[in-house]
Design a protein that fits this description.
This protein is an alpha+beta fold and 452 residues long. The protein folds into three domains: 134 residues, no CATH class; 77 residues, Dna Ligase, domain 1 (2-Layer Sandwich), CATH 3.30.1490; 216 residues, D-amino Acid Aminotransferase, Chain A, domain 1. The chain contains 15 helices and 23 strands. Strands 1, 2, 7, 10, 15, 16, 17, 18, 19, 20 and 23 form an eleven-stranded mixed β-sheet that branches. A four-stranded antiparallel β-sheet has the order 11-14-12-13, with helices on both faces. A two-stranded antiparallel ribbon has the order 3-4. The radius of gyration is 23 Å and the shape is globular.
Length: 452
């Protein structure tokens, strides 16, 4: 594996280090803003926003007017320049800008429905970036338009249905007859049901192929979802199942250019792993099988999360470097370069898929002076030391957890803070835009460059 030799871009003048992000936790969160300010950036919101009792409302027309360097009244008319009682401001376009507002959940003015995941800012950038002044690379955005749908479990499963590293998946309702035949042929296999695009373990259940509940669910399913082979023989640490969260930085899709985090986290279930029938199907015991942080930090898992577990200790995470040491000790066949070789190949194929996904390419072709993006890859390793991809997430959580949980110090807070603070500094060092200012943190050695 090769580390990148230099930053992606030439540095900007220190006076032009201006970044934008969504408000509060709706964006990347306070940790990134803190890192940016320590590195010499100023940080603002990209447009007016308002939080009501339902959700956050965003006014992306202000951002569009700024991009197009026009007065909102001239651009949208007198009536169009007032939305929900807010008169659109004329925002000055700076000489250079780092726009970090990737897709997020919010509403538009006048929309009374609940918030949904939107990519308005990425789509506006794709539509108008060629009209921006200055040189190519003076205005960069985080978030490829269309990638949210491209990474939906159904779309991802269609794309990688024959990939040796992706557990066999059937897309419902289109393939219900095929999977019902599979259940009959192999009744002892284990399967996991997943909705199209939820997170934190919502809607997921593990069942055996001969479980009447699973068969009935497949027959009745009308919404887009998948049923996927369950990796039933995972490597365990201390008797607990886990997945690796390793981040992927894509700096170009045309041509593909990307970097894999040389490390990451292992996130654990908080109950010992077992395939006992009482943990499956209608009795599904999620903390035995699902290692999502949100689920395992739920109030119902308080005692399991805070318990001192073998190898893991309190909480639910250790570093990938700790996993490597564990594998070296307990699996004589383990070779670090082989594990990372598998991860790099999987990462390469995922980036190549995004580079040609119709939902992305219809917005244009974007090189390394325009858009970059960050992804969280969820990977598992089985007892044969084979790496499996569970899913790839856009806009992964990269902000601090609460310092206290249930009135006590959070055992994972400092571990995750250290990991994410280092990652953000590494990402900004890789981008290179603030390289004209002496930076105390961040290194290119924490990435492996994918060879396309």
């Amino acid at each position: 594996m090769l580390h990148p030799k230099k930053a992606v871009a030439h540095p900007w003048p220190i006076k032009d280090l201006k970044a934008y992000d969504f408000p509060d936790e709706m964006g990347w969160g306070p940790l990134l803003k803190s890192v940016l300010k320590k590195r010499g950036w100023s940080v603002e919101e990209p447009c007016h926003s308002h939080e009501d009792d339902k959700s956050t409302v965003m006014w992306p027309r202000e951002f569009e007017a700024m991009m197009r360097q026009q007065d909102p009244v001239k651009l949208f008319g007198k009536r169009g320049a007032v939305q929900d009682g807010h008169r659109l401001r004329k925002m000055k376009l700076p000489p250079k800008a780092l726009w970090l507002q990737a897709c997020s959940d919010y509403r538009l003015p006048g929309d009374t429905s609940k918030a949904c995941t939107r990519e308005d800012f990425a789509k506006l950038y794709a539509k108008h970036h060629k009209t921006l002044p200055g040189e190519l690379g003076d205005y960069r955005l985080c978030g490829f338009p269309g990638v949210y749908n491209a990474l939906a479990k159904t779309d991802f499963s269609w794309a990688f249905r024959h990939a040796p590293w992706y557990p066999k998946a059937y897309c419902l309702p289109a393939e219900k007859e095929e999977i019902l035949k599979r259940f009959q042929k192999s009744p002892n296999e284990y399967w996991v049901t997943k909705p199209r695009n939820d997170c934190s373990g919502v809607g997921i259940c593990v069942m055996k192929a001969n479980d009447p509940t699973l068969i009935q669910q497949v027959r009745a399913e009308k919404q887009a979802s998948i049923v996927q082979r369950y990796i039933a023989d995972p490597v365990l640490m201390g008797g607990y199942k886990f997945h690796m969260r390793i981040h992927l930085v894509v700096t170009s899709l045309s041509p593909p250019e990307a970097y894999v985090q040389a490390g990451g986290q292992c996130l654990f279930c908080t109950k010992p792993y077992t395939l006992a029938p009482e943990t499956l199907g209608w009795q599904f015991d999620a903390p035995v099988h699902l290692s999502n942080t949100g689920l395992n930090m739920d109030n119902a898992q308080k005692d399991c999360f805070m318990a001192k577990k073998p190898v893991i200790g309190q909480g639910q995470q250790v570093s990938v470097s700790q996993l490597e040491k564990h594998l070296e000790k307990h699996y004589p066949r383990f070779k670090r370069e082989e594990m990372w070789g598998q991860i790099m190949q999987i990462s390469k194929e995922v980036v190549e898929y995004m580079a040609q996904a119709p939902g992305v390419t219809r917005h244009g072709k974007f090189g390394n002076k325009q858009i970059f993006d960050l992804f969280g890859m969820d990977l598992m390793i089985d007892k044969d030391l084979k790496i499996w991809m569970c899913e790839t997430n856009n806009t992964p959580g990269l902000d601090d957890q609460d310092k206290k949980v249930w009135g006590k110090p959070n055992p994972d807070y400092h571990k995750e803070h250290k990991c994410f603070e280092q990652f953000w500094n590494d990402v900004l060092t890789l981008l290179g835009l603030d390289g004209a200012r002496k930076q105390e943190k961040g290194t290119l050695k924490n990435f492996y460059q994918i060879q396309f």
